[in-house]
Amino acid sequence: MKRRDIQALRGFSVLAVLLFHLQIASFKGGFLGVDIFFVISGFVITERLAQADGAIPNQILNFYRRRAKRILPASLVTILLTAFLSWIFLAPIALAQFTHDGIAATLFAGNFRFASQGNDYLNQSTSPTPYLHYWSLGVEEQFYLLWPILFLLLIKARKYLILPLFVLSTGFAIWYTSVSPVNSFYLPISRAWEFLAGIFVALLVPKSLRSGRYLAFGGWAVLAFSILFIGTDLPVPGVSTLLPIAGAMAVLVGSTTSPWDRLLGWFGDYSFSIYLVHWPLIVIALSRYQGLSATAKILLAGLSIILGFVIAKIVERPFRFNQRFAWKMPTWGVAIGCVALLLFGASSFEAAAAKNSKIQLDRSEPIIYHDGCHLDFGVSAPTSPCLFGDLRSKSEVVLAGDSHSAQWFNAVEAAAIHNHWKLLVFTKSSCPASFLPTKRSAIADTSCAKWQRYISARIAADKPDRVILTSYSEYSYALVGGGDYATRYAEGEVSFIASLKAPKSSIYLIEDTPHPPQSPAECLSKNAGQINTCNFALTRSAATLAIRKGLSRSGIHYLNLNGLLCPADICTALFAGRNTYRDGSHISVSTSRSLAPTLISLLK
Q1: Is-above-0.85 flag for pTM?
Q2: Each residue of 2-54: pLDDT tens digit?
Q3: Per-residue DSSP letters for 477-537?
Q4: Residue-wise over 401-412: b if at least 16 C-beta within 10 A, else e?
Q5: Cβ partners under 8 Å of residue 105, min gap 6
Q6: Confidence grade of residue 358 (pLDDT, cut at 50, 70, 90)
Q7: Alpha-carbon distance 479 to 443, whole Å?
């Protein structure tokens, strides 16, 4: 018999995720709905495994067959629907990458792909992938590749193993988040404890004790508190995640009806399909409009619920309950393969179409992204010399900063070649050349702090002839500690420059480039006949203005090239005949090269 409180818990979870993705400020912990889903899943699946009978191989095969019927129809149909809508509405130049994400989602490996990309789920770019939410399905299916086998094979020992496994995996997840927050978010090894929380209730809490109105109501109160007050500024999964997990466990143990079961239970009945469709709809809407109005959010929420209901009725439920669709596992494997092949063919076609578009877009990255010289997250020191220009020259110039320093590499390299300088590069993603204590995924970025100290000491020891600095001051990094952000950024920049122990006349700071409201390159690919619609007004952040003020009389060379990029304070999507930006933040390689003559003259 279906428990309405569990369906209500599902409905609560999917609404929390939906409202979080719609950027409803009051639901800042809505992302925790997925964690609650994992607890429910562990409980329900284990209960069903415990009720099964027959030979163990048959039980395992029947389990996987039921999972295929439950997950694959709606999942694969939504992937194909997402690909079709993306082809209609999203930027052509992004489609090839997005369809590769779709292939990973089809194979339930999206979480591994996003982890390898360093894709920060809780801090998305202006052009997120419409398949991002499939990370949770990847985690779930990867967990269930092993759990049924362990459950059925370890019949006598399983009850004694659950508590130690739960405690150990919880401790591991909290530790791993502090070491590698992005990997910990996506990988099943650090999410296993959430499934084990539900498994703990299913196996270790006797059914005779699963009743308690006050316990259930307390669990609901804890869940509501978590969704409203636990934000993305805390590590996930982390200590704070224990709260919603405990709340979900309390509801499962309480096993009682609540006044809101009927309403939330309805959403729970269609929660899977609603979850699948809501994120692609939001991504498509964000690609068309700069931000979402209250009316747009209401419409998107309604459309997600309606479309989820329709998919559940015509796809999910018929395949799940109608014996006509009792496909064997090889048939499901063929279905997965066909969808993956369709997406692969689409990605090849889309890449060719983007390449042959009316405007030739430069999406290349500076070479330092591919030779190991631009450091990624978690790395605190270069592994190679990273020398360019005239390697025999005794005159050395240093380029240092985050990715907004790396975007100037081609212009600086041209200056080094022109003047016969040796160029030494120190750049690292999301780590400014400023003593600014940043956080990544709510964890202090220790690799960034080490790198800042390393390049400060290295530059002070090398005593180069020129030091060129710039950082992403148009963006607000999450910081360790409080205080005014702009003031802390400017003070960190001044302190960093002082630590170099170099003559002020040898230091050049390039003011950060403007931050576009959308990716100009993607806008150009969608609006080749109306390129002016991709222009945007020049704005300056408080941090950029504070740095400008703090360094204006310091004696260093303060370079502002934004007048060239934004004549009359309007930043143009095209510069020197090519796209100004390669993505939603960085100027293109062609723009950097076009600005080389100007930079050469300024560096003299």
Answers
A1: yes
A2: 789 999 999 999 999 999 999 998 999 999 999 999 999 999 999 999 887 77
A3: --BSS-S-HHHHHHHHHHHHHHHT---GGGEEEEPPPP--SS-HHHHHHH-TT-GGGG-EE
A4: bbbbbbbbbbbb
A5: 79, 131, 134, 137, 138
A6: low
A7: 9
By 3-state DSSP, what share of the chain in percent is helix, strand and coil, each rounded to 5?
65, 10, 30
Distance (Å, rounded) from C-alpha 371 to C-alpha 384? 9
In the chain, the amino acid numbered 266 is: W
Tokens 């179409």 identify what position?
A: 353
Integer Cα distance of 136 and 105 in angstroms: 10
Helix or strand holding residue 468 (H, E): strand 466-470
Q: Is residue 395 within 8 Å of 421, Cβ to Cβ?
A: yes
Any residues with CB less than 8 A from the CB of 563 and at least 6 apart, and which? none
Sorted by sequence, the CB contacts under 8 Å of residue 592 that are 6+ apart come out as 366, 407, 408, 409, 410, 411
Looking at this protein, which amino acid is placed at residue 396? E
CB neighbour class for 17 (10 Å; exposed up to 12, middle 13-18, buried from 19): buried
Q: Going by C-beta distance under 8 Å and a sequence separation of 6 or more, which residues neighbour residue 604?
A: none
For residue 374, list its beta bridge partners.
Answer: 427
Q: Which of 29, 67, 35 is nearest to 190 (CA)?
A: 35
- Could you identify the residue written with the tokens 């309390």? 250
Alpha carbon distance 41, 151 (integer Å): 15
Confirm if 513 and 471 have CB atoms less than 8 A apart: no
Q: Which of 38, 47, 43 lies closest to 192 in space, CA to CA? A: 38
Tokens of 111: 């979480």
